[in-house]
Amino acid sequence: MAELIFFSGTMDCGKSTLALQMDYNHRARGRGGVRFSRNDRAGESRISSRLGLETDAVEVLDSTDFWEEVMLRRTQGQRVDYLICDEAQFYTPEQVEQLAKVVDEIDVDVFAFGITADFRTRLFPGSQRLIELADRVQVLQVEALCWCGRRATHNARTVDGVMVTEGAQVVVGDVDMVMEAAAPEAGHVPVVGYETLCRRHFMRRVTAHGASLMAQQDQLLPFEVDACLWHGSGGPGESRGPGSRG
Q1: What is the distance between the alpha carbons of residues 145 and 195, in angstroms, rounded to a whole number?
Q2: 13, CA 20 to 30 Å: which among 117, 127, 132, 151?
Q3: Catalytic: which of 87, 166, 185, 195?
C-alpha cells in the first residue's frame, strides 16, 4: 500500500541528499516518479544537496495542484508510482491534503522532505499539515551540529551575524554565514544567514558570530549571558554609532 512519509530535520541534516538517493533507488527498480521542489538554494526547478548533488525538478507554486499534476501525466501515458517532494515546509496545507489524496485514491507513494519549524520555532504550515496527515514522520538520523559541538535542534536566522527572532517566515539567505564586521557601514545591505544551534544557545541567542566576538576579547564562552547583548555584536544592548543601522 502507498504511504505518505514525511522526512524531517533541521538544516544540514541531509534531507535533499536522501531525497535524491531515494529517487535514484526507486528509478533503479523500474518505478516512475516525479520530483518536486520549492525555493531550492540552487534556483528554480532544482533539487540540490550540499554534497554537490543536483538534478531537475518541477517547481511548486501556490497554484500547483498535485492531484492534477499526477493525473495529467498518467493520462499522457507517463508512469507515476511515487513523488519526491523536497522543501515541503513551503507547501500550503491544501497542497499537503492533495498529496494525501494522491496516496489514498490512486496508490502513489509520496516522500516529503522538509524542515519542521522556522527560525522562531514555529511550525511551517506545510510541515504542520504533514505531521497531522502523514502515515509516518521520520526524523533523520544524520545530526546537524551547533557551533559548540552539541546536536543542533533549532534553525536560527541571522542578520549580519546577529540572531533575529522577528520577520517574515520565508527569507532567502546563506547557511552558516558568520559575519566578521561588527558594525556595518552606512548604506550596507544586511546579509541574511541561517545556522543551526542547540537549544541552549538558541534560547540564549548565542550564534557562532557572538561566540567568536567573545573569544576574540578573551572571554569565556557564554553560558549565562546573551551574546546579542555583547559589545560589538550589533544586538539591542549596544549603543549605535552614526554609521550603524537603526
Answers
A1: 9
A2: 132
A3: 87
Q: Which residues touch 126 (CB under 8 Å, ≥6 apart)?
A: 88, 89, 90, 91, 92, 93, 95, 96, 114
> Which ranges constitute the DSSP H helices of 7-148?
15-28, 66-75, 93-106, 125-133
Q: What is the DSSP letter of 57?
A: -
Total-model pTM: 0.69
The phi-psi region of residue 125 (left if phi > 0; otherwise alpha if psi is between -120 and 50; otherwise beta) is alpha
Contact 113, 88 (CB under 8 A): yes
Choose the weakest-confidence range: 90-94, 152-156, 210-214.
Answer: 210-214
109 Cβ partners below 8 Å, 6+ apart? 2, 3, 5, 81, 82, 83, 103
Q: Is 87 one of the annotated active-site residues of the chain?
A: yes
Give pLDDT tens digits for 10-57.
777 778 899 999 999 999 999 999 999 998 877 889 998 877 788 999
> Where does the pLDDT of residue 172 fall: very low under 50, low under 70, confident under 90, or very high at 90 and above?
low
Place of cell 538534478: 55
CA distance 215 to 221: 7
